[in-house]
Amino acid sequence: MYKLSGKNSIILLLCLRALYSMNWYNVSPMLFNITSTYGVSSALSGLILSAFLIGTGLFQIPSGLVASKIGSKNTALTGMAIMSVAATTSFISPDFTVFLVTRFVVGLGSAFFFSSGIAVLNDIDERNVSRNIAAFNTAFSVGGGFGVVGFAYFLQYTSWQNLLAAGGVVTLILTVVSFILIPDLSSKSAKRNEFGKNVYRRLTSRPLLLLSMSLAGYWGLNFTFEEYLQPFAQNLGFSGPVSGFIGSLSLFAGLLGMVLFAYFSSKRASVILPSLVIFISAVLALQFFGLSYYLFLTAVLGGSISVIIFSLEYSYVVKLETEKQFVALGISIMNALQIATGSVITFLFGYLFSVNADLSWIILGIIALIFLPLGVSVMKQRS
């Protein structure tokens, strides 16, 4: 059967990555429409985001284990199939509780795609994996940006149920095409007695754990920044449409990050990663002064720098791994730690934001810096 070339397979994976992000962020402009439909308080809208995050966080390590056994391609595309079907079934969710379950399953599916998707990139083109990971993260930014802006626009003409279902159907179609056309280059499973030892070795890998935790504060900072940028813009007096533009700007700025990545990837990670985290923490902290139009600058800087930082750290994990079979597991362990820690940070920020929206940004930046020293020594040893 005909299979795509390596280059075309990567392009198809990037399209899937964009749809993955779209199915994540497209609920953002619909949150209050959804709560209104089910007759629940708008204060419960945060549960919609939390349900997704819990699903994707809980199944990070299980997804890595599955990928180590059945291969990265099969795991990644199975995850996309689960994600798309769950997004589609939100169309028929009879109540708010069932809808939250569908969002949990969407998050579950996303967990199986992300780390395995990076492993597939490594299987296809190991030489240029850092560049391809940067493109992978940029596709996430573009897809998320379209999820916010595009679905907000189409919501004027149809129901949120129709939009979520349409996004799920499009994703499922491309997933099926990918199953057929992308070649499976995954490494074969290790023997059972060796498999357990290999898994344990990675779960207890000091370099991997320290690097993951050192950037967990930044993960929380970045996720919180993206989620609260739009309401913070409204808090500063911008209109709804302008606030929405600012919120999506941080995602589309990932394209700039892709351009800049070539420069930063040629430098020592032990210098670049801490420097960028310190820089963006300081930039966000300056929002304490309430300079409204400064928010456009933070949106561009925050979005572009996130692509650089995440691409560098995932590339680091790929290069740290000596067996391609376990690339997805290493990344899934990193994701699990960062999502768990970052979720707590986001929850804390939500409380602080309600008390003092300006001061909360300074505290968020400080938290990101507290975690940073954990991995600096590891990065120096491995540079």
Task: Give a written overview of the molecule.
The chain is globular and about 55 Å long. The chain has one domain: MFS general substrate transporter like domains (Growth Hormone, Chain: A), CATH 1.20.1250.20. It is mainly α.
Percentage of β-strand residues:
under 5%
Major sheet size, sense and barrel closure? none
Cα radius of gyration in angstroms? 20 Å
Overall structural class, as computed from helix and strand content, comes to mainly alpha
Helical run tally: 18
Which CATH top level class fits?
Mainly Alpha
Total strands: the figure is 0
Q: Would you identify the regions where 5 or more consecutive residues have pLDDT less than 50? A: none
Predict the CATH topology.
Growth Hormone, Chain: A
What is the CATH architecture assignment? Up-down Bundle
- Count of discrete domains: 1
**How far from one another are the termini?**
42 Å
Shape annotation: globular
Short description:
This protein has 383 residues and is an all-alpha fold.
